[in-house]
Amino acid sequence: LAKTTQPISMDSYEGQEVNITCSHNNIATNDYITWYQQFPSQGPRFIIQGYKTKVTNEVASLFIPADRKSSTLSLPRVSLSDTAVYYCLVGDMVNQAGTALIFGKGTTLSVSS
Amino acid sequence: NAGVTQTPKFQVLKTGQSMTLQCAQDMNHEYMSWYRQDPGMGLRLIHYSVGAGITDQGEVPNGYNVSRSTTEDFPLRLLSAAPSQTSVYFCASSYSLAGGSFSAYEQYFGPGTRLTVT
């Protein structure tokens, strides 16, 4: 399983764009990149997933360069309610042997007013 | 749909006691898993199951047993509770196309069980 590295914490202010970068140097051909968000005292929830280039949904954008060795989660105009832990995961999309989804420590994002 | 439900929400055990954490899902998901979350440690995978009758170990399986007799339920048993098992436990479920990877699809998490072992 490809290991991911992301910053332990980040601080931001309301209205700013936040970019969280995740490093996954050993990503394999069949691996997809997935981001989850976790609020205090809740289970994680899926935010976005991608394989290459750019993916955008109503919550965030995910930028993946051509070599796929890193990815950046972009949160536009954050608010206080975006304060949470963000996890970057890499998982095999094809083989059931790649099923086990391994979370790291994530990035704690703190948004202030 | 209730999604993924976990019971109890809170539990206090004495060292050496055993108990079962319950997890159920009503989405007909084949894949279910258990994580524990300790302060500052992120989530660590305990056990997972890719279907009824099939289970496998995750990162930290020692001290825990699981079984999967139905698609809906995936209980986690603590055989002899230890203070090191004090944690928040999350259950998750997911689906996949036949034979494909479950990590490809959105994992739905339950609300968690906060366990304290004294």
Please characterize this protein's 3D structure.
The complex is a heterodimer of chains A (113) and B (118). Chain A has 113 residues and is mainly β. Chain A contains no helices and 9 strands. Chain A is globular and about 45 Å long. The model of chain A has no long low-confidence stretch (mean pLDDT 90). By secondary structure, chain B is mainly beta. In chain B, the strands form 2 sheets. In chain B, strands 2, 4, 5, 6, 9, 10 and 11 form a 7-stranded mixed sheet that branches. Chain B has a 4-stranded antiparallel sheet with strand order 1-3-8-7, with no helix packed on it. Classes of the chains: A mainly beta (113), B mainly beta (118). The interface between A and B is medium-sized, with 30 and 30 residues.
Uncertain parts of chain A: none
- Based on secondary structure, the structural category of chain B is mainly beta
Radius of gyration of chain A, in Å, reads 14 Å
Tell me the strand percentage band of chain B.
Answer: over 45%
Radius of gyration of chain B: 14 Å
H/E order of the elements of chain A?
EEEEEEEEE
**Unreliable residue runs of chain B:** none
- Record field, number of beta strands of chain B: 11
Strand fraction band of chain A?
over 45%
**SSE string of chain B, helices as H and strands as E:** EEEEEEEEEEE
Mean pLDDT of chain B: 91
Oligomer: heterodimer
Quick one: how many beta strands of chain A?
9
The chain pair forming the largest interface, with residue counts per chain, is:
A-B, 30 and 30 residues
